[in-house]
């Protein structure tokens, strides 16, 4: 396995708060058959100091980029970090999460057991707080799953998913065109997972997990006005993408009519808006109206009125509902 399936652990780094914990978890791996690539997105200067602490403990290639690309396009920053590496398997990790000590070992074990028949392998996750204390155990992934089945499960809200739980084939990443470039990279990982699951099923790695940190310092927990606007924009773009994807790649476990798909996408979109806890502006309401017409087959005016109703309910403190 050492020469046949080497692994690149790629970290697009920006925040130093939990970075040392991340590198410690990598240094503690029971299987050290990997190389670490760190792309510093013009982040805090202390990142370089932390990297130097691990130079003798880990095989690290570090590069500080002078321009902050992630602020404008997280997907493009991910891409330039991945292109620092050359290994055939890529684990795009993060600067604040932690991996179990047996993750690399169990990945290679699963790779050997499956004969490298999958393009995408993934770990199950638990959510932890800023102190590393467990918040929840996230629903486990099926052992094998198509991209369309995964996407429907995500749209229904029955599953969490993160970019840092994924190990994928470089060849598949290249041929797919990489991560779709949505604002903040918000649903980019979901679209990427679905795409890589079109021709080969997605394989879950049992027995090891990634600790996904919900610290209040990452994009997942950032509901500032600026972030909320970009998240809603990303969701609008993603809904159009998902509609086209599922029409071309139907799920295997249940037939979706056009009406079913429209309701699924509409409910998912407004649930994401609810999570931002921000009222929609007039401009956003008009954009949602156009989205409802193009992707949900609704008459003009429907999306605008529904957004106004959403604003009223949110202002009154009502929970999300259809």
Describe this structure in words.
The chain is α/β, with parallel strands linked by helices. It has two domains: 7-220, Alpha-Beta Complex (Spore Coat Polysaccharide Biosynthesis Protein SpsA, Chain A); 223-315, no CATH class. It is 42% helix and 18% strand. The chain is built from eleven helices and ten strands. It has helices spanning 19-27, 46-53, 74-82, 103-114, 147-155, 170-176, 188-196, 225-248, 258-276, 282-295, 302-315, and strands at 7-13, 34-41, 60-65, 89-92, 98-99, 120-128, 134-137, 144-145, 166-169, 202-213. Strands 1, 2, 3, 4, 5, 6, 7, 8, 9 and 10 form a ten-stranded mixed sheet that branches. Strand 6 and strand 7 (134-137) form a beta hairpin.
């Amino acid at each position: 396995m050492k020469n046949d399936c080497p692994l690149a652990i790629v970290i697009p780094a920006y925040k130093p708060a939990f970075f040392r914990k991340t590198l410690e978890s990598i240094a503690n791996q029971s299987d050290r058959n990997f190389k670490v690539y760190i792309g510093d997105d013009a982040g805090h200067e202390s990142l370089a100091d932390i990297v130097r602490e691990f130079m003798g403990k880990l095989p690290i290639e570090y590069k500080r980029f002078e321009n902050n690309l992630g602020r404008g396009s997280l997907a493009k920053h991910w891409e330039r970090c991945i292109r620092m590496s050359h290994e055939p398997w890529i684990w795009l990790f993060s600067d604040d999460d932690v991996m179990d000590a047996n993750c690399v070992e169990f990945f290679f074990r699963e790779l050997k057991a499956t004969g490298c028949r999958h393009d995408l392998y993934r770990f199950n996750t638990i959510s932890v707080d800023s102190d590393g204390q467990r918040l929840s155990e996230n629903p486990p992934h099926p052992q094998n799953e198509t991209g369309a089945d995964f996407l429907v499960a995500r749209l229904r809200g029955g599953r969490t998913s993160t970019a840092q739980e994924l190990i994928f084939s470089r060849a598949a990443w290249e041929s797919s065109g990489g991560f779709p470039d949505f604002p903040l990279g918000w649903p980019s990982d979901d679209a990427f997972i679905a795409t890589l699951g079109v021709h080969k099923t997605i394989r879950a790695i049992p027995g090891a997990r990634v600790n996904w940190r919900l610290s209040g310092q990452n994009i997942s927990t950032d509901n500032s006005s600026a972030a909320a606007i970009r998240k809603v924009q990303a969701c609008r773009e993603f809904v159009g993408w998902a509609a086209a994807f599922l029409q071309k790649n139907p799920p295997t476990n249940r037939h979706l009519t056009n009406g079913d798909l429209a309701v699924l996408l509409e409910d998912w979109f407004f649930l994401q808006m609810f999570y931002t806890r921000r009222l929609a502006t007039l401009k956003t309401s008009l954009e949602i109206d156009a989205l409802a017409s193009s992707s949900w087959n609704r008459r003009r005016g429907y999306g605008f009125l529904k957004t106004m109703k959403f604003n009223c309910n949110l202002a009154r403190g009502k929970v999300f509902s259809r």
